[in-house]
Prior knowledge:
By secondary structure, the protein is an alpha+beta fold. The protein has helices at 10-14, 24-35, 62-70, 77-90, 94-97, 121-135, and strands at 40-43, 49-59, 103-112, 141-142. Helix 3 (62-70) packs antiparallel against helix 4 (77-90).
Amino acid sequence: xxxxYYKHEPTVLNIGLGxxxxxxxxxxxxxxxxxxxxxxxxxxxxxxxxxxALNCIIxxxxxxxxxxxxxxxxxxxxxxxIEFFAFVIDAPKIWxxxxxxxxxxxxxxxxxxxxxxxxxxxxxLLQESWHLSRDCGYRLFxxxxxxx
Length: 148
């Protein structure tokens, strides 16, 4: 996932970190999302991972958690990215705009191996995540899109 997602993530590329290894804080964020138990993994016929949708449940204080987490980082691009993600969570003001409980099902990240792109893998991961959200009773499905 770090290979397919972090190294090709548009925000990472735009800030000049393309091709670098994911730092420990980024890996711990991804591990926390996977540990939530809502993530969906796509495998090829040889049982190799070709894509993943890291899903988790977020609350109305998620941006505050990310800002606090960013303060654990040295000043620099990783801290800037985490603060940017906190801004992106708050920008649509979903908690004020939608009359739902203070939780949402979030597709935090979606990645597909370069060799398997344009085959519908990402679309299927998104659909399956949406169905999982609905089946678990969440009324709000959240995802942010960025691409090159």
